[in-house]
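It would be a great kindness if you could assist me with a short task in structural biology. Thank you for your consideration; the sequence and its tokens are set out here.
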Amino acid sequence: MGIGNEESVPLHEHIEEVKQSSIVCEELMDDTVVEIQKTMIEAGTEKSVVLEEEDKAHKEMKQQMVTVPDIKISNPSSTASDLPSSSNASTTVNSASRVESTSTEEPVLKKAKFMKKKKKSVELFLGRFFRDRRKKREGTGSAEKVRTVKPRAPKKDFITTVYHEDVVGEALQEQKKSSSSAVAVGLPKPSPKQQQQESDVKSSLIRSPVVDNRTAWAQNIITKRSIKSLAREFAANKKIKPADFTTEAYERNDAKNRYNDIICIDATRVVLKDRLPEDDYIHASWMTMPDGQKYICTQGPLLECVGDFWHMILTERSKVIVMLCNFNEGKHEKCCLYLPKEKKEVGNFGGFIVEVRDCKPDPFEGIKHTELDVKSGDDDGKGFIVHHLANFEWPDHTAPLNPAPTIGMFKLSRTLAAGKPITVHCSAGIGRSATFVAIDYAAQKIKAKADFSMVDVIRDLRSQRYQAIQSAIQYVYLHVCLLELFASDNALQRDSKFSEYMDSYVSMIKRYNKKVEAKQRERSRSEEK
């Protein structure tokens, strides 16, 4: 009787243990699959290889699991007193119990061992899975990384980087079209490896910098072109002139020309509006920039031509006048007085009323800014506002030591003009004036093409204003002004090489000025005799 009681209790416990193990394993596998799916969704991947393998393993495990027989014990807690009292009955019960125990215990124990083994394999799998996921997050796992590469901003250095905005935009639009069409026709989504490759392509397109043409040009000048070589280049091309031109208007109006050797070609001359053909001449030429900005290069007004000068300013709606000479230099008049000097002063110049509205603070060293109100003498209406910018420290036939004020003056004139013509004059209107205009022309050409030849600046401008850029010094100064302009626009760093190049220019100008001063003293002595 004791044997029956001892055998029935362990059997029930084994059965319950097997059932619970089976349920736990199934729940564990289900939770694992759910966890894997959540992880894969967070990683942005679908139909992961790992998920497919574990789903397959999960199905195989379910197939291998043998259903535990549902053994019912009416009263597992029954005792010996409940059993038949006769010896035959006792023998029968004991024998039946042994047979039932032996036949049922063997598969249950095997199943328990099998479930323990499966449980261990599940634990090993979970260990590998979470270890690989941790490595994947840390970027050291053997599994392929799937992440979006965020393009980093390029490091700031003296080379200005310009991005392929158009190229990147077209590439992204093309990719969107291809991806949308793929979804429309039901094509499979790209694999993680393909996504990574596409991300790398995008990143390379966005990050790949292009050296600014202005930077490349400036570096070439600083490192490969000496100041003397620039002067020699001008000397070799000094005689450049347009192939075909006529000067009929210039020849008919000799009294209106300040110099008899500075001609004005017909093709680009400014024709005075609202005048008869015999009275429409002024020694001034149109000069057009690549971006469409127009300049009027003209000689310093003569006393008898002041009315023509202001007529041109009003009819062409020129809002800015750039003066690059003094009224008198040495013993020679370079330009007649064509505007009042003091604030609120009003004057009549060639039949035009000019009033000084305001004398602005000097915007740059040596640069004067005066705001004028101009109107015709027979006009009682509101006047036309003109900004007069004057640089009285640019000597004739030479150049300033510091290019910064000239560049500041150039930028200010473009801003104040607001797209209207800018009138520039010195004395003859071809040396200092053409050099000033050449800054704008050359800067635009260089920005479009790094290897643009500066000799072409001479050729192009002289086809518009005959004899533009008179001397080698002015040609060298043009290069120095461009370097200063590009540096002020952050297209060039003011490093040691930049400073050395500027110092070499200053040294050359000082030596040249000494020679010019010596010649002027000698000329003055000869005139006195």
About this structure: The radius of gyration is 47 Å.
